[in-house]
Amino acid sequence: MGDIPDKRVTVYWRPGCMFCAGLFHSMASAGITHERLNIWEDPEAAAFVRSVAGGNETVPTVTVGDEALVNPTVQQVAAALN
Fold this sequence. Notes:
The chain is of the alpha+beta class. It has 3 helices and 4 strands; from the N terminus they run βαβαββα.
């Protein structure tokens, strides 16, 4: 399973986030390719996360195409790809 061209997967994360590390591991095991944006290094990425997470910088936040998923499971990411 991989991402579909019109459904790019982007993971918004920050260093030290164990939930992020777990999702990265699960996505690698599932063969889901993705781009990573560190919200501590990218103010626009942090603002986007706040815009979809009720004003909070909740990570991981994942976009699949135009759909935003806040703290999703790998199963939710895979379902959004289909």
